[in-house]
Amino acid sequence: MQNILTDPSKSKPRALNAILAGYRVPTVSRSVVELLITVAGFVVFWVLMVAALQVHYALVLLLAIPTACFMMRLFMIQHDCGHGALFPGRRANDWVGRSLGVVTLTPYGLWLRTHAAHHANAGNLDHRGMGDITTLTTEEYAALGPFHRALYRLYRSPIVMFGVIPTYLFVFHYRLPFGLMKAGRQPWLSTMGTNAAIVIVVGGLMAVMGVGPFLLVEGPVIFVSATLAVWFFYVQHQFEDTLWTHDDEWSFHEAALNGSSHYDLPPVLAWFTGNIGVHHVHHLASRIPFYRLPEVLRDHPTPGRRQPPDLPAEPALRNPGPLGREGPKARLVQGPPARRHALTASRFVDGWRRRALPTFSLSAPRLRLPRRAPATSAGSGRASCPWSPAEGTKRRRS
Predict the structure, then answer these.
(1) What distance lies between CA 25 and its chain's CA centroid?
(2) What whole-number distance in Å separates Cα of residue 97 and Cα of residue 79?
(3) Cis peptide before 308 (omega within 30 of 0)
(4) What is the 3-state secondary structure (H, E, C) of 79-101?
(5) Is the pTM for the entire model greater than 0.85?
(6) How far apart are alpha carbons 336 and 153 in whole angstroms?
(7) How far is CA 77 from CA 84, 133, 189, 269, in A?
(8) How far, in Å, CA of 62 to CA of 308, rounded?
(9) Beta bridge partners of 332
(10) Do 250 and 372 contact (CB within 8 A), yes or no?
């Protein structure tokens, strides 16, 4: 069997589409089982958190971690519904997606449209601003005044990006159809309908268990699950050698394969995240059900990877706040060297390694198109982190 990864004739867009078409077919029974297991897991752990209130709040916080993981998986299943990937019919996908949106605090119809814009324009410098993380070129960043530069740095800092924004996004931002306020009534119906359902469910739970106990249980679940969701969305496109080009050079397939990461996670985390770490395949064929994404890698492995062969998560954690990208080299904006690591999370990764816990890696996409000649026009090319590959390799070997 010829491999689509090593046979250049099969890595063209039309050939890739034909080969991946078989993976787009969902298995209804498998989809139902995955949904029921996830809903049941979330409900069981949420009830355990309620019961733990009678024991000690530390136990509640401990149980919030698996509960948040199940909530994140519900969001990933809702995500698949938005792509029409969970069930063969659109109606089943839409109603499951709408129902899950009440739990994940995400208006399904609104999110569907903004996320579709993200897939349609990922890596396109001329179509940023909807469904993605704000990223400026260095020319744009240099044109800002000191105040707006400071705001941008604050926005891209780890504390704000992974501490403040996630909870704000799911609790407050999604309560109005921002970005689509004038796009007709559908975004409003989706948002207000979800809000009404949330009020009914939350109001009922508060009436049964009290306002304080409900907030003590739901609060940490929302915070942890939202932070995890934003982190994964961030790292899927903000990594060493990601691809950004202008509209005249942009290609959907090349952006999918070279502008999306493969976040190689331990099996347990891969399960809770719905295999979303196989993000390059997901962007190439978004209608592949999440449980079939590993099949693509299994059936079409590649013997080679980009150098360095594996990019551990440590650099991504060390610099989760790169500030933008520049012209031909598309390099991330850097702060002064003395301040570059003022806000760092790498110490946590180092701690994980000292305790011999799993190390995550962010590796090169395994499905690849023939590379174009290096772009010479300003504003296009591949992105680099504020540390060099050589530097990263030395740190890993030391």
Answers:
(1) 23
(2) 8
(3) yes
(4) HHHHCCCCCCCHHHHHHHHHHHH
(5) no
(6) 12
(7) 11, 22, 22, 15
(8) 37
(9) 325
(10) no
